[in-house]
Amino acid sequence: MTAGFLLLLTTGLLCAAFALVALLIKVVQEERTRLSSSSKMIFPSIRSSSQAFPPSAQQPSKRTSPLPKPPVPPTKAPPLSVLKSRKAPVHAVGREVEAKLLRLLNGNHATALRLVQQAQLRNPDRSEQWCWEKVISDLERDRRV
């Protein structure tokens, strides 16, 4: 077989496929018009498909959004003066390190603990003092940008 013959065969098959698709489209359109005209004769009071069901049976066109969630109150960190007045630090770190981290986080004690815990998980072989200092240095580094 030559390339020309294969090209001619492929073109013929494509033309036949397009003719079949065109015929199917024509048949579907004729069937739709036939069904729509026969349904008007059977149900003359119904003019559109949206009126076929009572409004209560129809689905709402617009979804209602769920009720908004109530805001979660922020966790209250003890004021810096309370933290400074403690005799011993809460953790095995010096008061100065703890106070410096809290100053960097605007007194948010919960965030400080979370960041230190993450540092401890990433560096299990390091001391708690080192983790506190690491969090402080990371915050200072990130804020220099």
If you had to describe this structure to a student in words, what would you say it looks like?
The chain has 145 residues and is an all-alpha fold. 59% of the residues lie in helices and 0% in strands. The protein has 5 helices and no strands. It has helices at residues 3-42, 80-85, 95-104, 109-122, 128-143. Helix 4 (109-122) packs across helix 5. It is elongated and about 85 Å long. The two termini are 71 Å apart. The mean pLDDT is 75.
Strand tally is 0
Which geometry do the CA atoms define?
A: elongated
Low-confidence stretches are none
Main sheet, how many strands, which sense, barrel? none
Proportion of beta-strand residues? under 5%
What is the structural class?
A: mainly alpha
- Evaluate the radius of gyration: 37 Å
Distance between the termini: 71 Å
Helix content: 55-70%
Overall mean confidence score, pLDDT: 75
- Tally the helices: 5
- Give the SSE string: HHHHH
